[in-house]
Amino acid sequence: xxxxxxxxxxxxxxxxxxxxxxxxxxxxxxxxxxxxxxxxxxxxxxxxxxxxxxxxxxxxxxxxxxxxxxxxxxxxxxxxxxxxxxxxxxxxxxxxxxxxxxxxxxxxxxxxxxxxxxxxxxxxxxxxxxxxxx
Length: 134
Known about the structure:
By secondary structure, this protein is of the alpha+beta class. The protein has one helix and ten strands. The longest helix has 18 residues.
């Protein structure tokens, strides 16, 4: 008798579990790589993607792009990650007010394209916009 009650209880529990089971969640889209708001060029050789800073360095620029805030310093883009900053691939389309003095002009004079540490920038009215290579 006891075995029969246990079997009925087990079968009831299973039936309730099946009746109230939630369908599995839809698959999540693959995560965009850091800095990919608006797309991102590949990380150039020598670019310090993944480097961490404890605080934003003096002289940094704050950059707002595609609803996200970045820190730009010495040619690198960083995003806040808890109480530190992590270097990311440069976000395509982001505009910085000024480039490091070591940036070099590339291409023709009419193109107004600059390169620093493998990242290309196009001169725009607000400053310099991250762009793909010419």
